[in-house]
Amino acid sequence: MRGVNFWVIVFFALINNGCSLLGHGEGSVGGVARSMEFKTEVAEAIEMQRAQQLNAGNPPPKHGELFSLVFQLNTMA
Fold first, then answer.
1. What pLDDT is recorded for position 68?
2. In which domain of life is the source organism classified (predicted)?
3. With 14 labelled, which of 32, 37, 54, 68 sits at a CA distance of 20 to 30 A?
4. Sequence-ordered list of residues with C-beta below 8 angstroms from that of 57, at least 6 positions apart, any chain
5. By C-alpha distance, which of 3, 30, 1, 4 is closest to 15?
6. Taking the CB of residue 63, how many other CB atoms lie within 10 A of it?
7. Residue 68: inside a domain
8. 69 in a domain, yes or no?
9. What pTM, to 2 d.p., does this model score?
10. Which position has the higher pLDDT, 64 or 13?
11. Residue 74, in any domain of the structure
12. CA distances (Å), 40 to each of 31, 36, 56, in order?
């Protein structure tokens, strides 16, 4: 391996893992990925909880219906 290739690899390794090597794990690439994944999971959980709360008092759709009668619009003709 030539010296230039070695230093390029070292540079990218430090860019990716430098923060965790210095003891600041939240700034590393893995830490950023974990925090993004956590925020996504929290957002999905909040969305699911809100959907369940909105649908808590409504009956489930009858057999063959796509939506419950609560969601159907009655228009006057």
1. 57
2. Bacteria
3. 37
4. none
5. 30
6. 5
7. no
8. no
9. 0.42
10. 13
11. no
12. 14, 6, 24
User: Is 29 inside any structural domain?
Assistant: yes
Query: At 70, phi and psi to the nearest 5?
Result: -65, -30
Q: What is the residue whose two structure tokens read 């939240």?
A: 26
Task: Express each pLDDT in 6-59 by its tens digit.
Answer: 888 888 888 777 776 776 666 666 677 788 899 999 999 999 888 888 777 766
User: What is the spatial distance between Cα 61 and Cα 71, in angstroms, rounded to a whole number?
Assistant: 10
Kindly list the distances between the CA atom of residue 28 and the CA atoms of 3, 25, 39, 73, in Å, as whole numbers in the listed order.
Answer: 26, 5, 17, 51
Spatial neighbors of 9 by CB under 8 A, at least 6 apart, are: none
Q: Which domain holds residue 25?
A: 1-50
Q: Which amino acid is at 30?
A: G
36, 46 in Cβ contact below 8 A? Answer: no
Half-sphere exposure of 66 (CA within 13 A, CB side): 1
Cα dihedral angle (18, 20, 22, 27), rounded to 10 degrees?
A: 80
Tokens of 44: 């999905």
